[in-house]
Amino acid sequence: MKSGTSSAPVDVNVSHREDRASFDGAPERFTGRVHVEMLFDPSAPARATAGSVTFAPGARTAWHTHPLGQTLVITSGIGRVQFWGGPVRDVHPGDVVWIPPGVKHSHGASSTMSMTHIAISEQADGKTVTWLEQVQDEHPSQARSDLAAMNTAAPAAEASAAQKLFGDVAPGLAQLTDDVLYADVWNRPGLSKRDRSLVTVSALVAMNRPDQLRSHLALAQQNGVSQQELFEAITHLAFYAGWPSAVTAATTAKDVFARQRSTGALR
Ligand code: MN
Questions:
Q1: Is 50 exceeded by the pLDDT of residue 18?
Q2: Which of 16, 18, 45, 57 has the highest Cβ tally under 10 A?
Q3: Ligand 1 centroid to 63 CA: how many Å?
């Protein structure tokens, strides 16, 4: 027997559409009419699972994350995909979208046309998705959470926050902040948003920038970093950025988290 081969079954395994599960999307997980046709479940040791999901015009998922990411292959219609705090991207048949692990996002149809995509994700501990809250606004790019309203630099509020803070005196800087930093850099696929948050928080701690750190501590949690992990990062940074910077960061974090609890900005 050649190396790399195993005792494979002799016949090809074909599953037929009529034999597979299909169901409507649960209302707590989707807005609007959504139909799911399962394509395959993982065949161990493979971990990938896939479904074909059709969204009626205006329908979309609640916010959610995937532990090992997700690939969306757009097969018909016009769709929309958005990362939390980022711009809404139109997608068309033939487009393939990669959702990195842990990135909070939503996908669905355009307001006027339905959309079907094949969604492929891998299981981690038997799980492919963590569902979060519903998208609150018909135009989520303009939606503002309590958190974003409380903090000047969380991306959902960034566009207007930058404009409000210094748009009148430095419109170019506000536009670069909105269009380049948050719409582009933060959404680049080369690093997950969680990693970008850790890098950003580390830099702000090291440079002793508590004003910007406040909003990025909140954003880091939105991107999947726990409060415990943020305190651990600050402890780690004491050895690289200096004890005074770490102490300032720890007291800033304590205050930010206390305010979140009192306003219910984060669950
Ligand atoms: Mn998804």
A1: yes
A2: 57
A3: 8
Asked whether residue 248 is domain-assigned, the answer is: yes
**Can you spell out the DSSP letters for 218-242?**
HHHHHTT--HHHHHHHHHHHHHHH-
Q: Two tokens at 29?
A: 């997980």
Determine the distance separating the centroid of ligand 1 and the alpha carbon of 105, expressed in angstroms: 6
The token duo for 17 is 């559409």
Task: Tell me, in angstroms, the distance from the centre of ligand 1 to residue 50's CA.
Answer: 11
Select from 127, 149, 171 the last residue of a domain. Answer: 149
CA of 82 to the centre of ligand 1 (A): 10
Ligand 1 centroid, distance to 67 Cα (angstroms): 10
Local structure of residue 187 (DSSP, 8 states): G
Phi-psi region at 50: left, alpha or beta (left = phi > 0; alpha = psi -120 to 50): beta
Q: Ligand 1: distance of its center to the CA of 20 in Å? A: 21
Give the burial class of 122: count Cβ atoms within 10 A of its Cβ; 0-12 exposed, 13-18 middle, 19 or more buried: middle
CATH number for the domain that contains residue 94: 2.60.120.10
Distances 21 to 11, 16, 24, 40, 108 between C-alpha atoms, Å: 23, 10, 10, 9, 21
- Tell me the CA–centroid distance for residue 89 and ligand 1, in Å: 14
Q: How far does residue 110's CA lie from ligand 1's centre (Å)? A: 16
pLDDT (tens digit, 9 = 90+) per residue, 73-106? 999 999 999 999 888 999 999 999 999 999 999 9
pTM (two decimals): 0.52
